[in-house]
Amino acid sequence: MAFGRIEVPIDGSSTSLQALKQAVTLARENQGSLRIIQVVDLGPLYRAALSGVNIAEIEKAIIQDAETDLAAAAAIAREGGVCAETALIQGNERRISHEIVDDANRWGADLLVVGTHGRHGLERLVLGSVAEGVARASTVPVLLVRGS
């Protein structure tokens, strides 16, 4: 099965970097398109603003960090011989996994490559798993890349 449109979400972690590298390899081998996304959920910030907290600088810093991550990811793709498009998605208190799946569907992805931290037990219960949510909700194949 050839994957012509590959999407990979990143979050600045070493695990998402591993997923990115795998996605770059697959895109190059399949002569496919690569889309790198980062989802930032600003919903909690907006709730804080309702309490009188000035969130403008925090919001700006979060977005700048995400843009920096995306630029670095695009550079990694270029170094790997793949031209990638990037997108910053501002979530609004929806599950990040749903934002990822919805974007993949809108873009027409053939494959999602997602890093997983391999959490288990109480840590997974408390923190949840974006990768698991993506795998459950996606209508396209999902490649899970386990962090080391």
CATH topology: Rossmann fold
Q: Tell me what the CATH architecture is.
A: 3-Layer(aba) Sandwich
Head-to-tail CA distance between termini: 27 Å
Percent of residues in beta strands?
15-25%
Number of helices: 6
Whole-number count of domains = 1
Characterize the largest beta sheet: strand count, sense, and whether it forms a barrel.
5 strands, parallel
What is the topology?
Layout: E1 5-9, H1 14-29, E2 33-41, H2 43-50, H3 56-79, E3 84-91, H4 96-107, E4 111-116, H5 121-127, H6 130-137, E5 142-146
Parallel strand pairs: 1-2, 1-4, 2-3, 4-5
Helix pairs in contact: 4-6
Question: How do you describe this structure in short?
Answer:
The protein has 148 residues and is of the alpha/beta class. The protein has helices at residues 14-29, 43-50, 56-79, 96-107, 121-127, 130-137, and strands at 5-9, 33-41, 84-91, 111-116, 142-146.
